[in-house]
Amino acid sequence: MSRLRVAFLSPAAIVTIALFAIPIGIICAYSLLSRGAYGGVILPWTIESYRRVFDPLYAEILWRSFVLAAISTSLCLILGFPLALYIARSKRRTLLLNLVMLPFWTSFLIRTYAWMFLLRDTGLINTILQSLHLIRQPLPLLFNDGAVVLGLVYGYLPFMVLPLYATLEKLDPALLDAARDLGATPWVATWKIIVPLSRSGMLAGSLLVFIPCLGAYLTPDLLGGGKTVMIGNLVQNQFTTARDWPFGSAVSLLLMALVLIILLRMLSRQSEQLL
Amino acid sequence: MNRRVFLLAVSGAAAGCMTEHARRLNVYNWSDYVARDTIPKFEREFGAHIRYATYESAEEMLAKAMTGNSGWDVVFPSNSYVQPMREMDLLAPLDHKRLANLKNLGKRFQSPPWDPELGWSTPYMYGSTGIVYSKQAPQPEGWRDLWVNKYQGRMTMLDDPAEVFAACLKRLGDSVNATAPPELKSAEALAIRQKPLVRAYINAEVRDQLIAGDVLAAQSWSITAQQAIDQSGRLAFVYPAEGFPLYCDTAAILRESRHQELAHEFLNYLLRPEVAAAIAREMRTATANEAARHLLPAKDSENTTLYPTEAILARGEWFEAMPPAAQRLRDRLWTQIKSA
Prior knowledge:
The structure holds two protein chains of two kinds. By secondary structure, chain A is mainly α. Chain A has one domain (51-274): MetI-like (MetI-like fold), CATH 1.10.3720. Helices cover 75% and strands 1% of the residues of chain A. Chain A has helices at 2-31, 48-53, 56-89, 93-101, 108-119, 124-131, 145-170, 173-181, 186-197, 199-214, 218-222, 231-239, 245-274; strands at 34-35, 41-42. In chain A, a hairpin with a 5-residue loop joins strand 1 and strand 2 (41-42). In chain A, helix 7 packs antiparallel against helix 10 (199-214) and helix 12 runs antiparallel to helix 13. The radius of gyration of chain A is 23 Å and the shape is globular. By secondary structure, chain B is an alpha/beta fold. Chain B folds into two domains: 23-126 and 247-307, Periplasmic binding protein-like II (D-Maltodextrin-Binding Protein, domain 2); 127-246 and 315-339, Periplasmic binding protein-like II (D-Maltodextrin-Binding Protein, domain 2). In chain B, strands 1, 2, 3, 4, 5, 6, 7, 8, 9, 10 and 11 form an eleven-stranded mixed beta sheet that branches. Classes of the chains: A mainly alpha, B alpha/beta. The interface between A and B is large, with 37 and 39 residues.
């Protein structure tokens, strides 16, 4: 019995160690080494990279990334909640869920390029608006923070919808019947029954959206026109043009630590509420 | 199958594997940098098998080569990487006796500043950075024109610190390879002053928006510019008056390579006029191979975007490798420009 358990658990354990623990260990080691002149790392050991992390410039970038990720997550929640509720109550759930997941069939890069095509001055949206005489000059839709948020919301909305759907789908319809019998309007019933009961789905969805948004680098580069730096771009630059692997490792570890702290605080608050 | 036939077959197969193993070459190149038939023709003629893969950034190649066990034989470092790779002992010395076709290179590339004896690298394709602009807009003459309002919001710069610094430094009358903090800080201030006019920091992706007319002027590599000009007669390219950066990609053999002989044959093959011409024609790049240039149709070989005249080239300056301290300062300043 116990040998069987070991046999079944060991593949997962090996994968976790090989693909998670060891790489993180390597990043930790890199962050404490000195930079090689042309990339790579060399001795001696030093904490210099961590000293450089605490620079107001990088704090500002981190703050901006948090704000953009928080805005994107809130928008995903506002858009995703009604959609998940609708799907959970629909008769064509399978079809609708597949439609939500459909964008994953194409590469994220290609879909981002498609947005560039839609948003640019001579793009589809501006062309239509101009031919309807609604605007004279093309709207500046591309290459600003708005376009970055749009790209992030578009990219990560499914990660919000799917966990929300999973929670809402399990909700007992009898609870809503009871609320209605007690005189609650549909709005009140949604606000007082459905929203509190789907909190775990909201939390899971928000984390699944917030964390990748925080580390995004492709969207700010392509839709933001490289005019703002998010923390993901900073890390990417260290491994490419700046050739400063120790600093890149230190920044990414700091980011990971911050995410972990947020995660733990949210989880402990949730368990308090459950008690 | 009787036993003797089986043994014969096995040894035959083994021999086959061994000869194939001996004639095997691993080539790691930039994407879009050979013609469709470059590799198959070499394989047929030399009875070799080439494993071919591509990279998008020099750092990607360098990181692999630095392991000393990358499995690649031939790589294509840009000129500014030749010296660093030599210092790190990553490159194999070239044997000129096996590279008879070196004579086909243009005079400028027979003894380039980054490798005067061509002891470690053979020049392959070269290019430069200038301004591509719409003929319907006022014509720019130099980098300084990218700081005036006439292109406000319809002008882009490259998303590459070396290039943006190069434009700013040239405007200030400095070298594109400046390392001194005061010069770099003046360049940073200039870039921040320009930022409100910049629509985006964007590389080759700007091509579509140039063709569509969204963007009126863009800091651009000559190759990207030529590809855009090919598709739209309204575009033109200018080599900035203040001077501009030049780069050259080279072919080199890694020291770790166990196929030095075949690698030399491959480099010599790439230096053949007809091979280099086919690549330049298909990829719309400028070949360092003078004999190949003569084989190109006049509209290519006399194209001044790809092949600037000697008078223009005199204003160009080759990119050099950055010392670590300057590299770090440049990155810090670049992050500041992007955050401004």
